[in-house]
Design a protein that fits this description.
419 residues; alpha/beta; FAD/NAD(P)-binding domain; six-stranded mixed β-sheet; four-stranded parallel β-sheet; 10 helices; 25% strand
């Protein structure tokens, strides 16, 4: 019987680990709590009605259908029994493993204020995107029904908390919707007067980027009409708005892009955890004391790796492949190798023909960076169909300013979320 490799999570890390084991003499079992692989870097496009869900989500079974040594299971791992070498699923079923790859990613962190979640949804899943999309689009509908301009103002105020790449992209897209997509569609107000506020606790947007690019991004955001508040700490969020110390911002729509915490599954390993609940891993991605277990993606913390490995899709892909190669090496009697992240650059889009990009010491912005961003994201999408659909939708949006997925059905789950 071939060794059993169980992979928990089919994000970038889990999927690329499974693919790297396609020709290995192992039996691969991939477990995920959804039936699809999600291209998370474009999730904000679903949330802002730019793309429909199927354009960035691919059924896991279809993706791995031709990989004969791979089995896909729909389920959620509750804990890992390291002594018995078993994974316990949500219904009590167990999966035995000889090698285990943990790729369960991260969730939103509200820094001890989980009560904020109901009023400021994060953006990690398709459900999150549908919820945010509904709030954004229906805010304009509520504004049309409100005859009092004072009471209408909170409906037309959109607050994005956190100015990392997701927050910057979200704020830019909401501004584009209000100023271009919805222009001329309402009679009681001008959607171009909607207020988009981006709040960041640090002193610049895109903190991981070089200072010059952060400043370029801030300038581009403000040119689009986004109000950028830097060095402001959120102290409260409720159904009516956001509290920032002594200041109050009345807003009906708040989106959380400020913090993440690792999947709680890492805590079941019984090994030391680092910042955000991430598993402190050995240089080869294995868990201390358990060389048969490897962690990849947002769940892994490599304290000795310099510079620190960023929590981005390319890093998860590289980790997934590396974990698979180490498994193959171990089975062949060869030593494992330490993981080294190769930084191929960072890109963040701000809006139409506007982006920033950092490739080592080379910094670009504006239209050229936007083309680089667009090309990279089309290339890394899973499946030819998805690439084609996204390219067509983006081309249509570029020339017409229209959004491809503006239909919401309040009280019903969006149809593209099924299957």
């Amino acid at each position: 019987m071939n060794p059993r490799v169980v992979i928990l999570g089919c994000g970038f890390g889990g999927l690329f680990a499974a693919r790297a084991l396609a020709r290995a003499p192992v039996e691969v079992t991939v477990v995920d709590r959804t039936n699809h692989h999600l291209f998370q870097p474009l999730l904000y496009q679903v949330a802002t009605a730019g793309l429909a869900a199927p354009a960035i989500a691919e059924p896991i079974r279809r993706t791995l259908a031709r990989q004969k040594n791979a089995t896909t299971l729909y389920g959620e791992a509750q804990r890992v029994d390291v002594a018995a070498r078993q994974v316990v699923l949500e219904n009590g079923d167990t999966l035995a493993y000889d090698r285990l790859i943990l790729a369960t990613g991260a969730a939103d962190s509200y820094f001890g204020h989980d009560e904020w979640r109901a009023h400021a949804p994060g953006l990690k899943t398709l459900e999150d995107a549908f919820r945010i999309r509904e709030r954004i689009l229906l805010a304009f509908e509520h504004a049309e029904r409100e005859p009092d301009p004072v009471k209408r103002a909170p409906w037309l105020t959109f607050v994005v908390i956190g100015a990392g790449a997701t927050g910057v992209e979200m704020a830019g897209m909401v501004a584009e919707i209000s100023r271009h997509t919805l222009k001329g569609e309402f009679r009681r107000f001008d959607p171009r007067n909607a207020r988009v506020v981006l709040v960041e606790g640090m002193e610049r947007v895109l903190p991981p980027y070089a200072p010059d690019l952060s400043e370029r991004a801030r300038v581009q955001l403000e040119r689009m009409g986004v109000t950028v508040w830097l060095g402001r700490q959120v102290t409260g969020i409720d159904a009516q708005g956001v509290q920032l110390g002594g200041d109050r911002l009345e807003a009906k729509t708040v989106v959380w892009c400020a913090g993440v915490a690792a999947s709680p599954l890492g805590a079941t390993l019984g090994t030391p955890l680092g910042r955000g609940g991430r598993v402190i891993a050995e240089p080869d991605l294995s868990v201390p004391g358990h060389p048969e277990i490897q962690v990849v993606g947002d769940l892994a913390l490599l304290p000795d790796h310099q510079p620190p490995v960023p929590g981005v899709a390319p890093a998860a892909k590289q980790m997934g492949r590396h974990a698979a190669r180490n498994i193959i090496a171990t089975l062949a009697g060869r030593p494992t190798r330490p993981f080294r992240y190769r930084d191929y650059g960072q890109l963040a889009t701000i809006g139409r023909s506007s982006a920033v990009a950092m490739f080592g010491k080379v910094h670009i912005w504006g239209w050229l960076a936007w083309v680089a961003w667009l090309t990279a994201h089309i290339y890394f999408l899973i499946g030819f169909r998805n690439r084609l659909v996204v390219l067509i939708d983006w081309a249509w949006a570029y020339w017409t300013f229209e959004r491809a997925a503006r239909v919401v059905d309040r009280g019903a789950r969006p149809p593209e979320s099924h299957g």
